[in-house]
Amino acid sequence: MTMEDTQQCPKCSATCPLTARFCVKCGLALSGGAPATPHQRAHTQPLDQQALEAQHSMSSWAPSSAPPPGAVPSAAVAEPIAPVAAPPRVSAPPAPSARRVQDATSRPDAAANGASQPPARVTSAEIDKGFDDIEPHFEAISGSGDGIAGMPQDRQQVEVLFAHLAAEHLGPFRDFMVELTIGEARREWIRICSPAVNSLLEAAKKLGLSDLVGPLEVLSVELLQAQKGRGAMLEEEARTQLLNCHQELAKVLPEAFSVERESGRRDPIIVDSVLRQVPGVNKVQLDKIYAVGLTQLKMFYDAKAEDIAATTGLSLELCGLIVERFERYRRRAASIIPEPTRKAEYTQLEQLMSKLRRHNQAIDDQGRNWTRNVSKEKRKLRQARTDSWLEIQVVLARLGEAALLTRLERFPFGRKLEELEKFLERSKTDKREL
Which of 156, 144, 157 is CA-nearest to residue 55? Predict the structure, then answer.
């Protein structure tokens, strides 16, 4: 392809074929394309203008194209995550907007210093505006009353953008489904998730996404029905119905509804951290547990001490302590009242950071005056510091911050605390924007 056969994207400077109507990198509508008749130009020129306006408005909220990698920070070996099947009508996600890329690369020393990057988050108002922005573009390329229809790749581009908006919009719903999949879930989740599901349903209706509208309508009804129940926790019947609805939607739009990737990232971290808090569990015991494939929370929720002992060869007494520890974590997780800004988890994180800071400072102070008694006390403080860090790992995993944990793992405790302070400050800024 010669230079005469190409054009440059005005937004990201990518080189595209001269006949391309959209940038191959960022999806921006281009002025190129096959020669059109005067009648075709009369219809396509307004479409290009709509596309430009929609792309311009989306540039400020386009989500990151790559989710954080699943990584176990300690010796745990996670099961390989099965690849999510591609949806029948939605292609690979577009690249992040130019502004997001600039934010992530503006400090050349950030990666070298291990500094955690600000999360690419958008507000619900921006997401709703995004749905409104793509609606006229979708109608134009789908065809108007005079029978002029858009090119298939144009419709696919809009569907890709819709899938990304839906994925951002349904973050709380996926958290709800993760909790529902592994066990009990509080009824308050419905109050948080219903508005997002209903707004997505309205957007799908406007865009004519019939294969998505039906399952979303069923889900909306089941959420309303489940909300009428009594008690703090959802009944088993409501749990089953909601999980069935979720499975149907995950087939149609896995980018927005699939939770396997999120569970695969956070479960091994939580399992490893909880196991390491059990007295008597060290690397040898961990290796035996992971060797038989016990890496998911639900496995430990359902297992009995006798089953774990028979499978791993560990003592029945130790397996009883493991079951007890996971039951304690389960009760604690179920007691957390869900809230859009995750206030309870962030409050818990701040409290654990205070404990970690005290333990770390005490260890540093005692290191200046070594005696036999001080050395014994220092070992206790080190264990307390390790336990605080393990609990912090659990909270960060629940918040979906597996990538942050991976970065923090190689730092000393003082640097860990500095990076966590920066993370908390960014989180407070994000909540103020929301």
Answer: 157
Q: Quick one: average pLDDT of 103-127?
A: 40
pTM of the complete model beyond 0.70: no
Cα(147)–Cα(43) distance, integer angstroms: 11
Helix/strand/coil for 17? strand
E-assigned strands of 120-232? none
Say how far apart CA 79 and CA 96 lie, in whole Å.
29
Give the mean model confidence (pLDDT) for residues 308-337. Answer: 93
Q: Are 216 and 204 in contact (CB under 8 A)?
A: yes
Burial of 109 from C-beta contacts in 10 A (0-12 / 13-18 / 19+): exposed
Q: What is the pLDDT of residues 388-408, one digit of tens each?
A: 999 999 999 998 898 999 999
How far apart CA 257 and CA 242 sit, in angstroms, is: 12
Token pair belonging to 213: 């509208």
Per-residue pLDDT at 369: 65
Mean pLDDT of the chain: 73
Task: Report the 10 Å Cβ neighbour count for 224.
Answer: 12
- Which ranges of 234-336 would DSSP assign to H, the alpha helix? 236-252, 254-257, 260-276, 283-291, 297-302, 305-312, 316-335
Tokens of 8: 């440059």
- Give the model confidence (pLDDT) of 281-312 as tens digits: 999 999 999 999 999 999 999 999 999 999 99
DSSP 60-94: TTPPPSSPPPP--SSS--PPPPPPPPPPSS--SPP
What DSSP element (H or E) covers 55? helix 38-58
